[in-house]
Amino acid sequence: MGTQYVDDHRFLLYQGSSVRDITEAISSPELRDELEALSVEVSFTAVRNDKKDPYMHWYGIAPGNKLRIVNHGTEVFSGVILTVGLDGNITANDPGWYLTKSQIVLQLDGAAAPDAVARMCAKAGIAVGTVSLPPTRISKVWVGATPESILEDILDICSAETGLTYRRRVRSGKLFVEPLPTAAITAYHKPAGNLAAFDITLAKGSLTGSDSMVDQINSVVLTEDSGSSARVLGRASNAASIAKYGLLQQVESLSGDETTAQARQRVKTLLDQQDRLSRERTVENIFGCDEVTSGVLLNFIPNRYDVSGPMRVTGVTHRYGTTHMMTLTVSTKQPRAAGSGDTITV
Q1: Cβ-based neighbours of 117, under 8 Å, separated by 6 or more
Q2: I need a surface site. Which of 14, 88, 190, 228 has the fewest CB within 10 A?
């Protein structure tokens, strides 16, 4: 897409059977896509001087109206308008927002993870798309929980077994759950009709970031929670990491249906995933490309501050001005914090 044409993002307002292009009546449009969030958010300011000037047109934008953003006919965003300010400030979210609000009751007894997600969706009133999860058995009861929190619990269990991180998004009215892509992309931006598209990482803006041990875990305890008592199913720790960084322990509670081999694999996977320092970088004012969404692996031409090669996009803000620009937050998987001499007891 980024190699074929100059971006032309159009904002379409749906009010019942009426569809209107309101692009020329808005300013400062932004789309925020965070990997940890279940829905994508759009914000902009619509011209609204009707309170002061009776001759100024106002589109009557109201909560519940639908909004689509298209680029040369290709849909970039589809959602519902949530807030409308007296000053014309508008926010909208894709349908994943509904899964963060409504509360449901769900009881699972040994359901395979894909079936568990399907049952959750049925309770939440949303259709199921592709759910690429292992047949991990889920036994748990949620009372008054949001579908978002239930899904997080299910994915945490699956990640502990597979070592994969999963992305969940609502598209075309269906929930899709899939592992993060492993193939890196090169993103392009075409600045003008008479100019060739170029790799956006050739022209980075300012860079900030940090290396951190805040989210590091070097000891994992796996337990079975029966409600009245807890039984330890397994442990895993890295003595070298503990000696260097101090004890950073996490307790995981699973159903107890796991075999010894499964329990051993889970504590091993959790420790391998989390006994690492984190490296995060924020890239300001980089040229925009619609293919850059949260979760993608983006190829960076080597640059300073360790921003080079394939890096995971964990957050992106698209700014659809005269020129499509972005702010990116990216991370990369670091080596084990202090070797991998793990001790595992199951």
Answers
A1: 128, 131, 133, 151, 154, 175, 177
A2: 228
